[in-house]
Amino acid sequence: MRLLVVEDNAELAELVAKGLRSAGYDADILSSADEAANVLRTTFYAALILDLGLPDGDGLELLRELRHRNNPIPVLVLTARGGLRDRVLGLRSGADDYLVKPFALEELVARLEAQLRRPGQLLGSSLRIANLEFDTINRQASIDEQPQMLSARETAVLELLMRGKGRVVSKKQVEDHIFGHSGEVASNAVEVYVHRLRKQLAERGARVQVHTIRGVGYLIAEEK
Amino acid sequence: MIRFKSIISRIVILHVVAVVITSIFMSLALSWLLNYATDNIHDKAMQEQAVSVGEHLSARSDGSLELDLPLDLLGLYSQAYGRYSYAVVDDRGHVLFSSLKDHAALFTADTRSAAVEFLQQRRGDATVSGASVRKTIGNQVVWIQAGEDLANRDVLIDDIVADFYRNVGWITLPILLVLLIADIAIFRRALRPLRQASEIASDIGPTRTDLRLPTDEIPREVRPLVSAINLALDRLEEGFRIQRDFTADAAHELRTPLSILRTRLDTLGDEGIARALRKDVDGMAHIISQLLDIAELDSFVVDPREKADLRAVAAEVAEFVAPLALAQGKDIALLGTTEPVWVTGNPEMLSRAIRNLAENAINHTAPGTTVEFIVDDDGTVSVLDRGPGVAEDERNLIFQRFWRRDRRKAGSTGLGLSIVQRIAELHSATITLTNRHPNGAGFSVKFLPSGS
Q1: For residue A184, is pLDDT > 80?
Q2: CATH number of the domain encompassing residue A207
Q3: Between chains, do A213 and B333 touch, taking CB under 8 Å as contact?
Q4: Domain count of the fold of chain B
Q5: A-chain residues within 8 Å CB-CB of B338?
Q6: Distance CA A218, CA A214 (A)
Q7: Is residue A121 part of a domain?
Q8: Could you tell me the residue range of the domain that residue B330 belongs to?
Q9: What is the pLDDT of residues A133-178, one digit of tens each?
Q10: I need a labelling partner for A134 at 20 to 30 A (CA). Which of A45, A125, A222, B46 fits?
Q11: Which of these three, B147, B169, B191, is where a domain ends?
């Protein structure tokens, strides 16, 4: 699978590419937004790793242009600016994820794979935490490789949490995901499903924990 | 030297002074001119009277002189009329003829020097003014004097002088006043573009460095000043831009080599030494990122028009720090209102303040406890922990840069709370620190509610 790294610092670009190669990807390197815009018009890449501070302009411009042309390529933005707001701005401009320099290579690969596992993207369809696995094509959860039967809504909640692995999924997101925008939702409906899911996972011996962050959302992580 | 605060008052004062001086000077000059003219007319008339009296002088056969005045002239010089008088004096000073009762000369001064002379002399209560004209009749030289009693001077002439003050003298005053009003009006009109420019200038500040004063309508006399101000604003804006760029550049320049270092360590594999070095790099990256935040805050200005939803910002931060807390076996909760809370401020700066409070709380709270975020609809955000709390003598120290209770403790730079304090200062927000029962600390920051 071929990835494009757009980073003006040659040394860092080379190191990132090397890291990606050792994780099993092919990586091309470009050092300017202009070149990247040209290449992306003619060549297909599975994902784009984009530095925001490029010599010939802001990477956000390139990103907006890509999205303007309805190019759905997953974009992981790298930036030297660490503000939460910069993150929000980056995500609003069409980035799928955002990493502040310096970052761990492992983190970069993990975030990238989370993007590549999105529906319609190229990577295998399986999400995994400890002994819990979720196949996004068949929408099937397994614990210790044993397929598990869960209700449709428990499955939907689990899928959302597994996709957002390592991050908080807000209660609103869960609500929208399960119920869509249709009609009234009882205020504790989400809690009820999360509670049931948590109980099911514990009973079936999954070594994961579904954390409730009060007033914020939920996060799934390996059990300690 | 009187100092005038405004140009208008300067104009008014100077104009009033000019009006007073001009009206005094003009009336004096005009009345002098008028007097001079009437005196001239009087002198001419007296000279003519003397000449006409002289025309009626004739020499008798014995050599003595005879004066034969016609009736109209006799009337003119009559005692009853009393206004005009004449006398004829010979070269020895004898008075030959005189219209006066005492048969005296009008002027006793030696008049024998010039052909025509104008004289004035007091006689009792009256002042007589007139002319003395030399005339040779036969072989005799005589001086004919004609005079007028000034007390009985022509009423018409006096009326003209008096009327002058009433009609001509005072008309200068309203004319000058109208001129003054016109001047003030012209000036106010000319200054109006300056007033407009002042209004624009009052909007210029660190958050609006792009505004410039309009030069089109400014009077040409003032335009160099306005242009110079605009050039100064250009230089200031450039200064602000350089300062802003510096922090962005510094962030890039510092973080890129750190990224290279971090990535290189990652490609080394997970040996013990590499893991320790990674931890060092992460600690250093944290310090650098906080120093960059401080550098940015030093040149940061809050735009008073900017507003932020405190509740949304707090939720963002809680979401962001939750994985961090959970990894340390600590919990996060967001309590308080669930409605938007609009406050005046920059969302990024608010988020940094709350994030630093949260990181501080997560560092100090005991494992298994919860760090609580509480957003109040009055614009207060509180972050509460279950740590050791803050000792009375450390209450002020904790906000100082690089202060740490335990310097050996990893993960703390001693910069977080100073960043919070600086952001609070910039937003005119107040920080309250409370110790919780039975243990723990609570930091509350109250921001200014935004109008809408």
Answers
A1: no
A2: 1.10.10.10
A3: yes
A4: 2
A5: 215
A6: 8
A7: no
A8: 303-446
A9: 998 778 889 999 999 989 988 999 998 898 888 889 988 888 888 8
A10: A45
A11: B169
Q: Give the distance from residue A91's alpha carbon to the nearest chain B alpha carbon, in angstroms.
A: 13
State ipTM.
0.81
Q: Is the CB of residue A192 less than 8 Å away from at least one CB of chain B?
A: no
Contact list, A54 vs chain B (CB under 8 Å):
none
Question: Domain span at residue A78?
Answer: 2-116
d(CA B62, CA B64): 6
Domain end marker among B142, B169, B196: B169
Residue A81, min C-alpha distance to chain B (Å):
7
Closest to A75 in 3D by CA, of A39, A112, A117:
A112
Is residue B156 classed as helix, strand or coil in its secondary structure?
helix
> What single-letter DSSP state applies at residue B150?
G
**Are B316 and A219 within 8 A, CB to CB?**
no
Domain end (from A53, A86, A116) = A116
Number of domains into which chain A is organized: 2
pTM of the model: 0.66
Cross-chain Cβ contact B259/A12 below 8 Å: yes
Question: Residue B367 sits in a domain of what CATH number?
Answer: 3.30.565.10
In a domain, B133, yes or no: yes
Q: Report CB contact under 8 Å: A12, B256.
A: yes
Mean of all residue pLDDT scores within chain B: 84
Which residue carries 């119920």 as its tokens? A179
Residue of B nearest to A222 (CA): B327
Query: Which helix H or strand E contains A47, and what residues bound it?
Result: strand A47-51
User: What mean pLDDT do residues B309-316 have?
Assistant: 94
Mean pLDDT within B167-173: 68
Residue B353, CB half-sphere, CA atoms under 13 Å: how many? Answer: 29
- How far is the C-alpha of B269 from the C-alpha of B292, rounded, in Å? 30
